[in-house]
Amino acid sequence: MLAGFEVSHADQAPQQQVAEGIAVKMLREGDDNSTLSAMLIEFAPGATFGKEIHESQEILFVLAGEFYDGERVHPAGTLITAQEGSVRWPQSQTGCRLLVLYPNRATK
16-102 belongs to which homologous superfamily? Predict the structure, then answer.
């Protein structure tokens, strides 16, 4: 491994069900060396998360399918940046796969 690099692979990341029809694979958890957290989120068709209030900035990229935030549908290829304190209602009628980054979220 090249010095200064860290590698994660989605196939090797543990999967956790966070709600019915919604699975998360944690690719990287923030720590004392870097506060960046990264995960893949899969929504099954019709899955709904409920009200979500962001505790920190979130960057979301729709990899596949369509993501609905409670106001509009975002197709694959959409980049969404949510600021701390913002609110949405994540769901997907068709199912979707998301890459989600938290640039400033260390876990302890």
Answer: Jelly Rolls (2.60.120.10)
Counting Cα atoms < 13 Å in the Cβ hemisphere of 26 gives 10
Q: Answer for the pair 106, 32: CB distance below 8 angstroms, yes or no.
A: yes
Amino acid present at 52: E
DSSP for 56-91, written as a single string: S-EEEEEEEEEEE-SS-EEETT-EEEE-TT-EE--E
On whether the CB atoms of residues 67 and 74 are closer than 8 A, the answer is: yes
Provide the residue-wise pLDDT of the chain in tens; the chain has 108 residues. 788 888 888 989 999 999 999 999 999 988 766 788 999 999 999 999 988 898 889 999 999 999 999 999 999 999 999 999 999 999 999 999 999 999 986 554
Q: What predicted TM-score, i.e. pTM, was given to this entire model?
A: 0.88
